[in-house]
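User: Structure please.
Assistant: Input sequence and predicted structure:
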Amino acid sequence: MYEGLDNFILLNQLEELNLSNNWKLDDFACDKIARLFRNSTTLTYLDLSNIPNISHRGIEALYKIRSLQTLVIRGTRAAEYPFIELLVLMYQEVNPHCNIIYK
């Protein structure tokens, strides 16, 4: 399952990535995505909505993508995390240009 994410490695000019409603993705996939796009200067939008296996740990891994401006996490376990506001503040301290949509 995770090997398929390697296909994104050569997409250097990718600006938007919508992986919503992909029930197979999880926190490990978020870490893999973060490593693949950590040097991206173009990826500004990432939609991970309605993926129930993504928790706050997966979202924390995505801070490595410095180019992100919008991160959508509606319908994830992360969005239901009791300290979601704290997680958003922590994320935005590292990446102040990113807007996290969780409601």
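Residues 74 and 102 are 5 Å apart (CA to CA).
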